[in-house]
């Protein structure tokens, strides 16, 4: 499989840096954003193969970013990472087309597999 470009958006800097390094070690090219607005700004510049979003972030949260994607009609597989989220937030994410919702901290092999599956599903 080709090297996949991932945009990882999470406001927990230490977590994001460690997770991005672990994903790079598994062959992914990773760009990071530290809040939802940074993610949107990055998406205006380039569209990755898969977007990995924290549910709760300052300025714009994961739901806000997904709504922006839908408004712009950008079809992009999205995985949500969440340490805590409400049932309402998760239902909204499913309605907006999230590929999967994973609990934080994700097991790296499960996250890597979910990223590849999200990409493959979008490609077909």
Compact summary:
The protein has 124 residues and is of the alpha/beta class. Helix content is 47%, strand content 19%.
Low-confidence stretches: none
Q: Give the total of beta strands.
A: 5
Q: Tell me about the biggest sheet?
A: 5 strands, parallel
- What share of residues is helical? 40-55%
What gross morphology would you assign? globular
Sequence-ordered SSE layout with sheet pairings:
Blueprint: E1 5-9, H1 13-25, E2 29-33, H2 36-45, E3 50-54, H3 62-71, E4 78-82, H4 87-95, E5 100-103, H5 108-123
Parallel strand pairs: 1-2, 1-3, 3-4, 4-5
Helix pairs in contact: 2-3
Architecture overview:
It is a single chain. Helix content is 47%, strand content 19%. It contains five helices and five strands; from the N terminus they run βαβαβαβαβα. The chain is globular. The two termini are 14 Å apart.
Descriptive keywords:
124 residues
